[in-house]
Amino acid sequence: MTHHPRSAEPAPTTHSSSAPTVVAEGVLSGPDPRPTAGPRIVGMLHITLPDRNTIPTATSRCQCRRDLFAVGHRRVFALVDDHAAHRALCPLLTEGREAA
Question: Measured at the alpha carbon of residue 67, what is the angle toward residues 22 and 100, in degrees to the nearest 5?
């Protein structure tokens, strides 16, 4: 008679490794890696201009799923302005200001 694990039981591991246990592919089990209290990065603007003779690039990201990229002087300047406007309107960034 062969014993098969029931569907509610986790299957026994056949190998040992130091890799973290996953619930589903790409989903780690354990405590939430994002802290719920204290300061945290919600949005960021990353601008690159390695030297004088290169074309600038910029990326504007926010946890509200904003992810914009710009190449060239005019577009980077426009993205900087747009990023500043987004910071004033994004609910993830304004919720702390409204409570204060």
Answer: 90
Tell me if 34 is assigned to some domain: no
**Residue 2 resides in a domain:** no
**Residues of the domain holding 63:** 41-99
Residue 1 lies in a domain: no
Contact 43, 90 (CB under 8 A): yes
Query: What pTM was estimated for this model as a whole?
Result: 0.56
Residue 83 CB: number of other CB atoms within 10 A? 21
- The maximal CA–CA distance of the chain, rounded, in angstroms, is 75
- Is the separation of the CB atoms in 69 and 83 below 8 Å? no
Number of domains in the chain: 1
pLDDT in tens, the chain (100 residues): 566 555 555 555 555 555 555 556 666 566 655 556 666 677 899 999 888 889 999 999 998 889 999 999 999 999 999 999 998 888 887 765 555 5
